[in-house]
Amino acid sequence: MIKVALNPIAWQWGALQVHWYGVIIATGVVLALVLSIREGRRQGIEEDAFYDFLLYALPVALVCARLYYVIFQWSYYRLHPSEIIAIWDGGIAIYGGLLGGAAVLWWYCRRQQRSAWQFLDIIAPTVIMAQGLGRWGNFFNQEAFGGITTKAALMAQHLPAWLINQMYIGGAYRVPTFLYESSWDLTGFVLLMLLRHRRHFFKRGEVFLAYVAWYAFGRFFIEGMRTDSLMLGPVRFSQGLSVLLFVIALGAVVYRRRQRTLPWYAA
Fold first, then answer.
1. Nearest-angstrom CA–CA distance, 35 and 192
2. pLDDT (tens digit per residue) in 193-252
3. pTM recorded for the entire structure
4. Which of 92, 146, 160, 187 has the smallest number of CB atoms closer than 10 Å to its CB?
5. Which residues contact 133 (CB under 8 A, 6 or more apart)?
6. Alpha-helix residue ranges (DSSP H) falling in 44-93
7. Measured between alpha carbons, how far is 213 from 208 in angstroms, rounded to an integer?
């Protein structure tokens, strides 16, 4: 079999290299910002609020995503400390970024005296969209894949030949878990965008909570197929965190529904 390996470098000018990983993440962030601003106008939130939030949240989220990954891979990075900042080679944990971004959002909304739930409802669909796009950065870096499979099994999923060829990694075909998660995330994005403006469907905060529950549910099963899970003893940490977030999200919906004064997202 002749296989042309992917080049993770999108462009290079002298010593400067631009990785596809970074290009894809940046694209997701820009699209998320544009869509959030558009929805924010409908909710009476000025455009600058999203620029300001992103200015604070993006660097914190990236640092937290990298730290989350490095902490769980400390046995390697303590021997290679110079690689800790090599985020362009991959190795960020989305849960770390989400937790960091959520902390910044809570701080920002409190500082600006805004409704954190309203802000979360606006950005939640765009975040899961960016997550879905970002998984293709894993494709270019040939990471976040699953166990060994066969070419016949991949063909049975009606995957294009170019994708199947690139899933031949380390002498064997691999399960494209990055694709499964990307598809799950983008499906969640479409559903949230379609349902968000249905009259009396979501109450305030429930768009965000639906995002949390949707993502956590899918991530639990997809994580179980991956070969590079971050472990806490014998437990895949992201699976445990997914269960916790799913339960919290559903519990929050039940609790908040009892508060009859909560406004509807689309009245």
1. 13
2. 999 999 999 999 999 999 999 999 999 999 999 998 888 888 899 999 999 999 999 999
3. 0.92
4. 160
5. 24, 27, 28, 31, 182, 186
6. 47-72, 74-77
7. 9
